[in-house]
Amino acid sequence: MLHFIFLLLSMLAVRNVPSAFCYGKVVKLMILVIDRHSYEMPPEAVTKILKMAKSYIPKGIYAVEDDGYVELKNETFDTAEELRDAIVRYRMKGWRVHCNL
Is the pTM value of this prediction over 0.70? Predict the structure, then answer.
């Protein structure tokens, strides 16, 4: 049994995705970065935080996401053209952009 646990842990380490054991299940965790502080939490909690952050940024980028990593931003723009340019820059770097137009 102990050998199985070490094998499972080594497989999780190779995937490079944070995980946790919860009630006998392996739960995938996401890393959320807020102002240089990082937190590991389930995707459902990150989704709730993104919904809350969306209400605080009327015209701008409130988060960027990439493969289990979410970084909250507070970037507001005066014009829609500036916002679109910033979105294009993030997408070219491979980020998924959460924004309000």
Answer: yes
